[in-house]
Amino acid sequence: MAERIEQRLEDRVPELEQLERVGLFTRKEVRAVLRRASALEYKIQRRALRKEDFINYIQYEINLLELIKKRRARIGYSFKKDEIENSILHRVHSLFNRATGKWKEDVQLWLSHVAFCKQWNSKHQLSKVFSSMLAIHPNKPALWIMAAKWEMETRLSSESARHLFLRALRFHPECPKLYQEYFRMELMNAEKQRKEKKEFEQAKMDLGEFSYSEEILKGEMARIIYRDAAQKIKGIEFHLAVLSIAKLFDFTQDLQKEILESLQSKYADDPLMWDYMARRELELGSPQSTEHTTKQMKVSEMTQREERCCAVFEEAVRAVPTEVMWKCYITFCLERYNRKTNSKELKQKRLERTLSVFDKAHESSLLPEALYKQWLQLLLESNLFEKATEVVEAATQRFSLSVEMWQMRLQVLIQLKSDDVTQCFEEAVKHVKSKGTLPLWILWVEWSEGTNSKEDTEALYQRSLRGTTPAESMTMKEKYLDWTYRNGGYKKVRKVFTSLCENRPFSLDFFRKMIQIEKEQESCKMLHLREYYERALREFGSTDSDVWLDYIKEELSHPHGKPENCGNIHWRAMKVLQGDLVEDFVSKYTLLQTGHL
């Protein structure tokens, strides 16, 4: 092993001598490089090889290349690259090859090699890397696409890119992304050849025997790919993706027409098809001279386009009367409404149109639950409070088990300061099952705090504890405790705390809140604090180490605390805590003793 390492280090000597001779590195730096290289070589020659050692060695060589590049730029020296950089590049490629040979399954390692080749313009080497990587990872379409794109865009070889795509499709005959990128590549190739032909014709050059294929120039290869894919891939998304690619090229009108016809015949009942056809009307504006177009004419043109879109959507909701179709229609209307415009007239038309569509969807009982909230926001923004009340009432009738719907209705009534708030709350808790009603109870008690008497609010808090599930009641207990202290004072909150402690479950914050309240008193009693801590430890002593530490801190810092109790608390904690919490407690307790916590 030592002989091999010595040989590798000797192979470095010529490049290091050149670095020193041309003034890029000093002798001291050359020796440092040699020492570091020796250490890294020993690590990658061990029996038990580690991936990290190879990565560190590669990164060191890359850093060395970058440093040489900066030094060259600084002193303005650009010679001897074959003797210096090429030698290092060859070594890095060799290291990558060894690493990817050992850890073939690590795609990130392969991609790092690809990135290195691209950065240092190693085209010949990169071609080999792609070939080896695809032989080992043929099951990853993204790698095939990357290799084909490189062949097409960097090496300008459409033939090689086509060959790679065809190989990839043998492994992945139903991969939409592969077909999309293959389709794009053929159109790019056609566009490139069209430009070349045009330039040759303008220059009046004789091409001799060479001639451009008319089929390729018209994008017929892309058409073949599309037809083949359309037979294998189901779903409208692929057709829409291919159509969006075709629209990027100005010579594909016939191809776009074919894809559109296929869309309309195969997916006549698909909301996405109707959505696309409707939105397409925005792009099909009448061609006008832009020089003499006034603002009013632009507004008029946009209004006409949007009306054409809506006409298609109206036809769509008649042909496909589903929630998804209405959602597409409403989403379009909201997008147009939210677009900025200086025309108040256009803004008003968009608002009226959006509200009208919401209304129609609601009347058809096909408005999705999630969209009611947006409808309501729009009505409130437009100061249509009466309509908002009607809508939210209808929403709760249709989705009577939805907590969100009831919450929305209650918020509207509270905002409008209606007299029916209490009645609506009663109706809500009656319809909705106890599980999940916590947001309603929180909203109710918060409203009651600012509206009703203290007696009514307290009765409501007590009722909420019975009306929620045990898990949700923990939150209500915390809120009840906090409200009682704010409105009834210390003595009252002590009584409430004692009564609440009779019914499990509790949250840790419930006890922490009571401890905090006790600490805020002028005559903070250690006796009471011990009671709260002991209650908290009975519930959470085995699952939370911080409670024990807080208890110990309290005994140490309180004027009436007993530091001698700390040993006993520590002993109890060690017995009760489970698993990793013991270690966590010991480390924190040590920090506390040394004054670092």
From TrEMBL:
One of its GO terms (molecular function) is snoRNA binding. Residues 9-91 form the U3 small nucleolar RNA-associated protein 6 N-terminal domain. The keyword Membrane does not apply. It is found in: Nucleus, Nucleolus. Pfam families: U3_assoc_6, UTP6_C. Keywords: Nucleus, Repeat, rRNA processing. It comes from the Eukaryota. Gene3D superfamilies: Tetratricopeptide repeat domain. Residues 307-577 form the U3 small nucleolar RNA-associated protein 6 homolog C-terminal domain. InterPro entries: HAT, TPR-like_helical_dom_sf, Utp6, UTP6_C, UTP6_N. The keyword Cell membrane does not apply. SMART domains: HAT. One of its GO terms (cellular component) is small-subunit processome. GO terms for biological process: maturation of SSU-rRNA from tricistronic rRNA transcript (SSU-rRNA, 5.8S rRNA, LSU-rRNA). Belongs to the UTP6 family. This is UTP6 protein. It comes from Chionis minor (Black-faced sheathbill).
